[in-house]
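Figure caption, in words: inputs first, then the predicted bound structure.
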Amino acid sequence: MRNPRILVVDRDETLAEAVREAVGENRPTPEVHICTKPAAVEDVLTEEGPFDILVAGPGLATRAGLARLAELHDVRPDMGVVLVFSRRPNAALRDIVRTGAVDILQLPFADGVLRGALDRVIEMNQTRTPVPANVTGASSNGNGSGPKEPGLVFTMSSATGGCGKTFLATNLAYMLSHYTGKQACVIDLDLQFGEVSTALRLRPKYTIFDALEKADNEDADLDAHIEDYLVKHESGFSILAAPRDPSEADRIEPTDVARVIRAVRNHFDYVVVDTPAALTEVVLAAFDMSDVVYTMATLDLPSVRNMGVFLGTLERLKISSENIRLILNKAERDVGIDVDQVTKLFTQGFKAVLPYAKEVSRSINVGMPVMASSPGSEISQLMLAGFKDLLSESVQNEIATEASSHRRFRLFRRAPALTTT
Ligand SMILES: Nc1ncnc2c1ncn2[C@@H]1O[C@H](COP(=O)(O)OP(=O)(O)O)[C@@H](O)[C@H]1O
Ligand SMILES: [Mg+2]
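Bound structure (adenosine-5'-diphosphate present):
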């Protein structure tokens, strides 16, 4: 086993000295690095490669410091975080929890406290199983025909319509299947007015309603036949379409939705769920089964305000915010509200801020995800950057190598050619 690597982030070297002393007699002896500029910690991680433990000193015991740690934890969930404070930070408990800290220590240390904490984190790292929100942990179901482990479920949501849920759902499914070579399926849970098939110019033979009607309450039956009810897009991922008629939609219960998601994830590595702009029981059933929920807003006051109301409602419904990631879409300059103002309102931060892009309308007109039709466009690149932590490190490295050699992305499958029919 390689030596554990520890990064100590603090404004001076005292804490790093204490860490070195505490782990000095361990076998194997951990490598201890120091970063004295908290703002530069991301750069150090990029340049020096992965660390097993991050020890955050009192310099990070501010709200901004904790927010930065929470962002790091989102991107590098496998890195064990230990917080060291001189006094309890002036921040809400949830801000501390979001950093993913596995231990919190107060200065000055009593004998053996620091060593005990570091030993525990090293031990935990050795026995850790992959974190579900990281797609590197996804099962490989091969051709989608035989279940191994259930796939990961990502759900799109928003308080207002037109935020780009359907747009993002199709692009995320494309990205995951294209760059990993694994199987992805979009479930259109916008049961009354679903537009996934229209956006992809598909004419599905069957819908979610047909799949449920055939299965007649038998989970095993649904599981066995679900693939017969899907339609495959030429760019590589599958779709379970919304009902043809709103009256059929009314007959689908939240429990049916849970059954369908369970069946689809048994056959696919990635399941992307598109929803209507509402907090219905059906949408909440999808949230319950999701590894990550993306909540979207566009850069305008009603949408941003309603995103706040939406998140507040989830909190009142006691739905954990841990798996929720925010996305700001159609960000344009000079619209009377700017991105900085919005990011200040949502301290949890945005996973991605996407611009308004004409390539999107073009992609819709040809029934393609924009990441397939214009992979080099700014919006495609920003989506790739925003969601890259869902890809394994090796895939990320290949993408970076491709990008630096200015070639188009064609790692596993060729991006399908654009057709104008
Ligand atoms: N970043 C973007 N730039 C330009 N057009 C976009 C962008 N995101 C979405 N759109 C377009 O906006 C419209 C609404 O998006 P859609 O995904 O249908 O929203 P929702 O599903 O949340 O109602 C669609 O025509 C879509 O193509
Ligand atoms: Mg939609």
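Residues 165-166, 190, 195, 274 surround magnesium ion (ligand 2) (CB under 6 Å).
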